[in-house]
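Blinded run. Sample ID left blank on purpose so nobody reads anything into the name before looking at the predicted structure. Input follows.
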Amino acid sequence: MKIAIIGMGVAGIGALREWTREKETNPSIELTVFGDEDTFGTGAPYQKDNEKLVMNQAAGTITIKPENKNDFVEWLQSTKNETEPAAKHYPRELFGDYLKDRMNDWLVQSNAEIIKEEVISVQMLANNQLQLTSSSTVKNFDAVHLCIGGLAYKDSYQLINHPNFIVNPFPVKKTMPFIPKGATVGVLGTGLTGIDIFRYTKYHRPDLTVSFFSPSGRFKSVRGQADAIDYRFFTTENIKLAKEKNNGFIPLDTYVEWFKKEANYQQLSLKNNWGNNQLGSKETLKKELTNSKEIGAIQNLLHDMSPFLPEIWMALEEKDKQRFFELYYERWDKLRSSFPVATAKELVAAWQANNITVSNKLTGVIKEENSFKLILKDQEPQYVDYLINAAGTEKKVSYQVDRMPLLRQLINERLLQPETFGGVQMSLPDFSAVSQRYGILHTLKVHGELISGIQFGNNSVNMVSESAQPAVQDIVHYLKKD
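Blinded prediction complete.
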């Protein structure tokens, strides 16, 4: 049994972990792992970068070993002599060191072949094997895990060819030094990437004048404190019964009703957080810093739903998925994708002191020879020398994904097909690619952000890592049957 893993970030390391365990009972398994040199063993989010870029989750909530929830904490204690690390937020590159340590153990145990090259193409052969081509090798495999991370960064205003536009800010230690001293810098976006740019410039480039621009002019929410949620309405049994009543679907209104009842049961006020259409504003951030328990409880109500999310999402009709995006997604995302209290204090202090400016109602960007003109609705335009893209990655996939040649090839040759709500299609719970040309491909597994349109809300380490287990077991079962 010849298995390939393309990409060695969280998803790829999760697949390696599961195949290493499988090989204990089936020594004939041959593993080959592919990945680019810079992010091999970390993935892009946890690559070597600046220590001021911190995890948005506390150390005690993340692990690459699903059976040991404290594995990262124990690693910090044993290798870094950290005391009581569970509640702390560590640099992302430190989590990358942990991932590499665990990956290296599994590479040795599995005796995997390592090819530090990007895969150029994946093609289906007549014998149902998959042929992988990289810059120096062509190899055939019985099954493949596609773990290539997210899509390319958005370029909503077609700025990519401008010399003063930084389309992908990471790693900041390589991109930011090119900006000359004293320049005016605009940051496109007020999400978590924008927070990273804020922290880096605060500590390492105080000479820069930094302004943030987005349609809303609002950041994410501050990570609050709260206990785990004991659900009364979002339960496996309720989901099952609701699907039986509605021919396999659950109306969005049912979920909204459950959410309100759940909040009421937990004695939470939705008015101040879920009902607040100014989440992420300066005033709201200040309030969240003074009352972290209430916001934390609402965040946990959304976070702890993660095990149910894919099933909940797939039980929505297409029109209800669209309604969710239109009515609720912005609030859901701002509460679920929160950032640490210490960072929020720094951000609010800088905002209050006018060390940064934040503008809303961004409608367009005009390229000038050595600068940019930012168009704001009902406001005077603003000008900056450099523009940093913090708008996040693309969600929609098409045959024109120019900056991702492998994905373009897979879409063009119809091994993969786009999903309406982002990424590509696959089947749950086995993570098999859905192909227009070949049907369900049990030997081509797709993981991570690329399947976020179906495995909805899979932007957590644990959720992505855990997807490897059912995927590997399905391959084993399928190939044995053959």
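Unblinding after everyone has recorded impressions. The longest helix spans residues 92-110.
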